[in-house]
Design brief:
This is Restriction endonuclease subunit S. It is an enzyme of class 3 (hydrolase). The chain is α+β, with helices and mostly antiparallel strands. It folds into two domains: 141 residues, DNA methylase specificity domains (Adenine-n6-DNA-methyltransferase TaqI, Chain A, domain 2), CATH 3.90.220.20; 145 residues, Adenine-n6-DNA-methyltransferase TaqI, Chain A, domain 2 (Alpha-Beta Complex). Helix content is 34%, strand content 20%. It has twelve helices and 20 strands. The strands form six sheets. The chain has a five-stranded mixed sheet. It has a four-stranded antiparallel sheet with strand order 2-9-6-7. A hairpin with a 7-residue loop joins β16 and β17. α5 runs antiparallel to α12.
């Protein structure tokens, strides 16, 4: 189906008719007082619907207690009417009961059920839903308001062709998602096998190719700080200054640009360290576990513990190892306002390091996984963008 994405899509709407959403869709009012007796198997809450995903993949089992009574059937679209800006609307491939914060959409005879999830999952529909929502902290929209949403509807024969096209594009995206998921599963299995976690007494069980070190023995570990915001001459210089926001929004290992830059005087003011290329800049406060390796010299704020590796460890290997050990490192954190790992705790933390030969082989494999992940995510993102563009173009 990949060839679908390469074709130029031209849509003739000359014989499409203007309709209101309520002309082609209704809200069924079916409910149950005895889910077990009615053989209900699936319970769906808002948390089970993924934003901007037309597929309903998650649910709870009927064995779990629930106050939900609203029924839905196969091919119904479940729309998150609370906080519509979250853009939650998915088509069910199973029947069940759902939350009162979900509105059930069902097609009338003049609309193919296969088209309904695409009509709902377009920016214009969500914008309309957001505009007509009422409430303060948790705004909700009613079906009677959504029923007035207007759009152009193709004749039934064209609906079939459009549905085939849109689902073909969706199949491409889903296949790419599946490949990416399998890659991530494979990577996690590899990490579990080859990135060994330290535990008490492990030294006696390790081969001669592995040694236990404290992190302070394999890297110099220091932190950063923030120049005074009140001194203009400290800011808008040419020295990259890293914050956790830069790292959490970055999905690659290396980074060369930051949102903010400081000056030489700003660097001197905070007695900050300019970390050399190849350092591991590791978030040790609040957003613990995020990290990058810098492609250019950088300073950081106080939310980081930064590693300059010595000859005992490869910086990329240690990067992957630290990420793998996020849960263990997080257990060291304390603090009332936000979690933070102290530098002393990090320096004392023990890790298992293989010989240089084994380390390089593990690192090469992990870098290969990372390269494939970035390429697949980029490809999937492009496919989703094209799919979204076509949905918006059609409806």
């Amino acid at each position: 189906m990949e060839e679908v994405l390469d074709k130029k899509i031209e849509i003739d709407k000359s014989n499409w008719l203007p309709v209101k959403f309520g002309d082609v869709v209704f809200e069924p009012k079916e409910s149950t007082k005895d889910p077990i007796g009615d053989n209900i198997e699936h319970i769906v809450g808002l948390e089970h619907i993924t934003s901007e995903d037309i597929h309903l993949c998650n649910s709870n089992s009927i064995e779990e207690s629930t106050t939900f009574t609203k029924k839905f059937e196969v091919d119904d679209v479940l729309f998150g009417r609370r906080r519509a800006y979250l853009k939650k609307a998915a088509q069910a491939k199973f029947s069940g009961i759902c939350s009162g914060d979900i509105t059930v959409f069902r097609s009338k005879d003049n609309l193919l059920p296969e088209l309904l999830p695409f009509i709902v999952n377009n920016d214009k529909f969500f914008d309309y839903a957001i505009k007509h929502s009422a409430g303060g902290l948790s705004p909700r929209v009613k079906f009677k308001d959504l029923a007035n949403y207007e759009f152009l509807l193709p004749p039934k024969d064209q609906q079939t062709k459009l549905a085939e096209l849109l689902w073909a594009m969706d199949e491409v995206v889903e296949k790419e998602n599946e490949v990416l998921e399998n890659l991530n599963i494979s990577k996690k299995a590899f990490e579990k096998k080859y990135l060994i976690k330290y535990r008490n007494g492990i030294e006696k069980k390790l081969s001669t190719d592995y040694k236990v070190y404290r992190l302070s023995e394999i890297a110099e570990i220091t932190g950063g700080s923030t120049p005074s915001r009140n001194v203009q001459e400290y800011w808008n210089g040419d020295i990259p200054w890293l914050t956790p926001t830069d790292v959490t929004k970055h999905n690659k290992i290396s980074l060369s640009r930051t949102r903010e830059y400081i000056t030489e005087s700003g660097l001197r003011d905070i007695s900050n360290r300019l970390y050399p290329i190849g350092s591991i800049l590791y978030c040790s406060r609040a957003t613990i576990g995020y990290a990058i390796i810098n492609d250019v010299p950088m300073a950081t704020n106080q939310g980081f513990s930064n590693f300059i590796c010595n000859e005992k460890v490869n910086n990329y290997f240690l990067y992957f190892l630290l990420k793998h050990l996020t849960n263990e490192l997080t257990r060291l954190a304390g603090g009332s306002t936000f979690l933070e790992i102290s530098k002393s705790s990090i320096r004392r933390f023990k890790v298992v390091i293989p010989s240089q030969n084994i380390m390089m082989k593990i690192t090469e494999k992990l870098l290969d996984y990372e390269k494939n992940r970035v390429e697949l995510e980029s490809k999937t993102s492009s496919s989703k963008a094209l799919q979204k563009s076509l949905i918006n173009q059609v409806f």
